[in-house]
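QA checklist item 7 of 12: single-chain prediction sanity check.
[x] sequence parsed
[x] length recorded as 283
[x] structure emitted
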Amino acid sequence: MAARSMASSTITFGLVAVPVQIYPATRASAGLSFHLLHAKDGVRLRQQLVCPKDGEVVARTEAVKGFEHAKDSFVALTDAELKALDQKASSGIEVAEFVPSSAITPLYVERSYYLGPGKGGERAFALLVAALQQEDLLAIAQYAARGKDYLVALRPYEGRLLMHQLYHADEVRPVEDVKAPEAEARPAELKLARELVARLTTERFAPERYADEVRKRIRALIDRKVEGGEIRTAPEGKAPAKVIDLMEALKASLAAGESRKDKQKEKQARPRGRRAAPLRKAG
């Protein structure tokens, strides 16, 4: 099944423009997600915002974002204020520089997307892929979408491009925060370690060899419960009361009252018939 494009854009560098289509590279749906149910009746629970000060349930429309600049001290920001600061979406992935492919460590990669050629961009796309591959380079670019400014890297991959969304420098912790070992590897130990590594070395990484065993066991348990009829069907909720306009309700009540009065008057105005004489016994 052909992948569906999630957005279109244009890679630009110098006077070159390469139209591209952006596709998701991963599937979050491959994992298992759960809902919280009420153990007593199997009804799905709802989350509410509760003020811890007075216990009041707060509607989401009454909530604002707050930044804690000091302990228990917040600066409130409205959606309108944040919206005004959004990065204007651009139609381009603007390349700023090219760097060796080894220049970026996996540490900086947050998520990845596939890029394919856009309409009319087949030759330009193929040319860019070939140039990056032959020179062993990555393109560092900026891309604005959904009100945010993203730092990205473009890498040739299987005749297409991978677009890595990167963390910014202030989002990555310095490795110096982690203590390095003070001991050094001894030559004899290093020799044995290298021999062991050589035995386990393969030509390429094959991810299909590895599966999420816990997810498989959970999925099997769910399937067994379904086959055994252990399904909890949530009872139907009570139908919400029909909202009636007050004026309409008053008018309807008055009309019903007048109708009853008219029927009573009509009944009283009818002439009373004579009583039928009792039947006499014969003889």
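[x] summary fact logged: The longest strand covers residues 148-157.
[ ] second reviewer sign-off
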